[in-house]
Design a protein that fits this description.
Order of helices and strands of chain B: HHHHHHHEEEHHHHEHHHH
Largest sheet of chain A: 2 strands, antiparallel
Order of helices and strands of chain A: HHHHEEHHHHHHH
Helix content of chain B: over 70%
Number of helices of chain B: 15
Helix content of chain A: over 70%
Distance between the termini of chain A: 53 Å
Strand order of the largest sheet of chain B: 1-4
Largest interface: A-B, 42 and 42 residues
Number of strands of chain B: 4
CATH architecture of chain A: Orthogonal Bundle
CATH topology of chain A: ABC transporter involved in vitamin B12 uptake, BtuC
Number of helices of chain A: 11
Structural class of chain A: mainly alpha
Distance between the termini of chain B: 26 Å
Strand order of the largest sheet of chain A: 1-2
Structural class of chain B: mainly alpha
Radius of gyration of chain B: 19 Å
Oligomer: heterodimer
């Protein structure tokens, strides 16, 4: 039982991060139909920038805010210079462009930062909390709470503000949105910025637990995408549920099956979902127009 | 239409297609005159290896219109076949080479059917996931593959003629490349090739015309997997050492970039794409740290500005038409 709880806690923690990456994916996908494989790089940028500003003597809270700002700027640049320039390209070409962006950002991080692993101090110390024979780090609670706050505020923002309404309109039908006077370019750009910011916050939150390095982003992006597929592409609820489930799958697979194949779980999930239920858990079945 | 008229229509086309190999062969023959050291032979050998893999992927992407972001996985199978066969199983290198290609074909055949049912970004992601899974297996099965550190590859010999020395490799790979290119060109001009192009233009129209779309796609996927596997085996034998990087995500993306950069659907283009992407990092060795940044920039700019590819664009300029 203690073992089970232990895996549950670690699965939930990692799952919360996957869920945040998946939310970022979904935001961009809904607004622009772009599957953004550079999503994981935002997480890496958030963590790494905070770490290195911290080394430079900037107090960590300011460093974290600056890191989120940096990632947001990168997200906007990605939209403005890569995605918008290639607007008329097909889905696969756009995917490869974002993969190129991800390789580029990784290469840039390798030079600007370094190739080593880095960590951040935990917010409330590192004394584990004991629950039913298992332990949970205070930082895990911070991650879960942070993820929850982000999700709720994102929901409130999208559902309760005029700007959010415009995002919904844009994702429903871009042409119609433009016709009623919404500048869809600003909306899509804002979605890239927002999703980069969410990724960067996730990076700051998780770095004390999992460490970070210049190449941490690629695998996170792929796993975030696996979460999206599992939940059903385009569904925000699906992204959250998919992320948490994937985290749990991974934790239990690592605990009960084989730790070295932990990373394979996400890809097995992608393949199984695609072969068996392409619409995922919460997605709408797509009807092909002929 | 009579048989004669049909022949009359397609013969010039066929001649025209294979004739593109004549200037390439001439360049291959003359190039060594410019080579001042073994290093040049080695780089050229690498170009041929990646050109073989790119041709295979081009058959899939350029002709059948199906993307694969996991093709390096098949390179990995070929590479580890010639590494593991002789060392762990006592199978001679050349037989391992062939067995690797057969294994790649079998795996492609099994996973191809469900994967190729998918379209657009689902297809991209499924192939990507498949490639990464293979790389994870190569990394984790350390007893067989040496894990992330890789393993040495025993030298191969054709009969009593050992494959070693940069010059030997240059000629062997040049010949293999030409054979691969000729086979690909023939395939393109066969009924299968025409069916594939029909699928690329419109799957539904192709189906209406009686093309077994699923079977043709699967066939070309298997063929392209064999090309990748052969390239992977050569790569392992040339280097004498192999790590899971050969099957990694970055390699797969590099292969796609070669195909698109050179030109989708152009066999000559695959050679051009491979040349650019193999030589560029060599030319940038003094800026080794910038390699990833450069690759990322190349991939992005190719996809944004050069989607037509170098060779078809040039052919359009000089031939007054888009090929």
């Amino acid at each position: 039982m203690a073992e089970f709880l232990q895996f549950l806690f670690s699965g939930l923690t990692v799952g919360a991060i996957y869920a945040l990456v998946a939310i970022g994916f979904t935001l961009i996908y809904n607004a622009s139909d772009v599957v953004n494989f550079a999503q994981g790089e935002f997480v890496m940028l958030g963590g790494m920038t905070t770490v290195f500003l911290g080394y430079a003597g900037v107090p960590l809270p300011f460093a974290a805010v600056a890191a989120v700002a940096v990632a947001t700027a990168v997200g906007l640049a990605l939209y403005r210079f890569a995605i918008e320039t290639a607007r008329e390209a097909n889905a696969v070409t756009l995917i490869i462009i974002t993969i190129g962006a991800s390789i580029f950002l990784r290469g840039a991080a390798e030079i600007v930062f370094d190739k080593r692993f880095h960590s951040l101090p935990q917010l409330f110390g590192s004394d584990p909390i004991r629950i039913g024979g298992a332990t949970i780090l205070p930082q895990s609670v911070v991650v879960l709470a942070g993820a929850l706050i982000i999700m709720v505020s994102l929901w409130a923002f999208i559902d309760r503000t005029l700007f959010g309404r415009a995002v919904i309109a844009t994702s429903a039908n871009r042409v119609a949105a433009r016709l009623v006077g919404i500048d869809t370019r600003i909306i899509v750009g804002a979605c890239f910025a927002l999703s980069a910011a969410i990724g960067a916050i996730a990076g700051v939150l998780i770095t004390p637990i999992t460490l970070t390095s210049y190449n941490a982003g690629t695998l996170l992006a792929l796993k975030g995408f696996a979460a999206v597929m599992l939940g059903g592409i385009g569904s925000a609820v699906g992204a959250v549920v998919g992320g948490i489930l994937l985290g749990l799958f991974e934790a239990f697979a690592a605990g009960y099956v084989s730790a070295s194949y932990k990373d394979a779980v996400a890809f097995l999930v992608i393949l199984v979902v695609l072969f068996a239920m392409p619409q995922g858990l919460f997605g709408k079945a797509t009807i092909e127009r002929v | 239409m009579s048989v004669l008229a049909r022949l009359g229509r397609f013969r010039p086309l066929l001649r025209h297609r294979l004739i593109s190999l004549v200037p390439i062969s001439a360049v291959i023959l003359v190039l060594p005159l410019l080579f001042s050291s073994a290093y040049y032979y080695r780089v050229a050998a690498l170009v041929f290896i990646f050109a073989i893999a790119a041709i295979g992927l081009n058959l899939l992407m350029g002709f059948a219109g199906q993307v694969s972001l996991g093709h390096a996985g098949f390179m990995g199978i070929g590479a580890y076949a010639v590494a593991i066969g002789p060392i762990h199983l006592g199978i001679p290198p050349l037989l391992s080479f062939v067995l690797g290609a057969i294994l790649s074909a079998l795996i492609a055949f099994v996973v191809g059917r469900p994967i190729l049912r998918l379209k657009g970004h689902y297809l991209a992601v499924a192939t990507l996931g498949f490639g990464v899974l293979l790389a994870i297996v190569f990394t984790n099965e350390a007893n067989w593959t040496g894990g992330p550190d890789g393993m040495t590859v025993r030298q191969a010999a054709l009969l009593n003629w050992p494959l070693r020395g940069a010059e030997t490799w240059y000629w062997t790979l040049a010949l293999s490349f030409l054979i691969g290119a000729a086979l690909a060109l023939n395939l393109v001009d066969s009924p299968t090739g025409r069916a594939l192009r029909a699928i690329h233009n419109s799957e539904i129209a192709a189906r209406v015309l009686g093309v077994d779309v699923a079977q043709k796609k699967l066939m070309i996927f298997v063929v392209s997997a064999v090309y990748a596997s052969v390239a992977g085996s050569f790569f392992a034998l040339l280097n004498g050492y192999i790590t899971p990087d050969v099957s990694g995500f970055l390699r797969s993306i590099e292969l796609v970039a070669m195909v698109v950069l050179g030109g989708m659907g152009s066999v000559t283009g695959s050679l051009v794409g491979a040349t650019v992407l193999v030589i560029l990092p060599q030319a940038l060795t003094s800026f080794h740290d910038y390699e990833h940044m450069a690759l990322g920039l190349i991939v992005m700019s190719v996809m944004i500005f050069l989607r037509g590819g170098i060779v078809p664009s040039l052919a359009g300029v000089f031939g007054g038409r888009r090929s």
